[in-house]
User: What shape does this take?
Amino acid sequence: MNKDKKAVKKLKKYNQDHIIKLLNKLEGKEKENLLKQIEEINLNEIIRLYDTLVEEKIAKKSKIEAIEYLDKAKLSKKQISRFTSLGDDVIKKGEYAVVTMAGGQGTRLGHKGPKGTFKLDVYGKGKYLFEILAENLKEANMIYNKVIPWYIMTSNENYLETLNFLEKNNYFGYPKDHTKLFIQGKIPLIDTKGKLLINKDMKIKEVSDGNGSVFSSLKNAGILKQMKEKNIKWIFIGGVDNVILKMVDPLLLGIAIDKHLQIASKTVTKANPHENVGVFCKINGHPKVIEYSELEDKLAKEKDENGQLKYGNAHIMCNLFSIKAIEKISEEHLKYHKTIKKNSYIDENGNEVIPTNPNSYKFESFIFDSFEFFDNIAILNTKREDEFAPIKNKEGSDSPKTAKELYEKYWNSKK
Ligand code: UTP
Assistant: This one.
């Protein structure tokens, strides 16, 4: 069977007649590209995810418990100094690296371009999110007299734009030969009727497949191997959109080392029982982050013997992994979650449609689902105003406005 016929057969089987129409209209290189894509995409898997993935609920038979954590405010000076010095040693030896996950679509913020290229209006002149991260790392390099390798995960879609932006801005003064971009996995979007979306370039629209992709993407891009050659033992993995994120914290690292744990995470206390954040718990003896939507109201409000929320440690995308942990996770399969998002597409008449409401499903794996592969995790509960100022939404909570206030308040307090 020739390529065209094979593609048409596959598309028919999964009710994607609109893509057949598109295929018939295209010629030359454009047609070749689309044929190649149809051949490569695992439509069976996408349709299966679309059909079967429903909002996950915690199974009734699961045993859910509160998770142990350390409260930074309650650590003694002696403890802080012991943990910090354990962490310092690793960083001084050059065994520490940082990964920034910048492959998200940033649909809620709606900034045109990769989220890291968003300029936050701080201190008059403003700062780009990548600039804020570079500054944070440069400061750590000064303290440790070392250059910490910085890896930036982009999506297939935003790789070139991110690269050009960083090149144009000279990596905001971060040593270029210690900075490396890599591309994460991708997956097609599907609309609410089970149809694939068409992109502006007349291909099937594929987007990044969630931040849980970081482990396999580090491996597939050859970075894990590179890290091992450089004798890197610990890797911090954070997002691009928390403007006071501390990527190099010897305290968190020292706690993981002291407790002989391979993974660690910083948390902040949930602002109220109904704050829209995932929280840590243990399920069937393994660490897990439960999404806000999955946590029963009774559990969300439950208090411990000290009057604190029992499930009050919010996951803030501030995670640390040993290289062994990353190797282990990269061999596992992280499950996909289904989220509905706003995504533009090309309609049957060739016009671009920019939806005003969420119109399509995105399948994403989440970094925190990797925690379940371990028996334990070191959790350090910290002060929100010192650690967490995210930019998620255009307006309201977790927006540029709130992040600006928190950023300036944080740095003013350091003066
Ligand atoms: P979010 O899940 O908050 O997504 O990402 P987002 O892309 O920033 O925004 P929305 O949901 O579309 O509005 C948390 C972090 O994970 C990264 C993001 O770039 C951000 O740093 N991420 C997310 C990836 O690197 N890849 C992905 O596929 C998804």
The mean pLDDT is 95. The chain has one domain: 59-414.
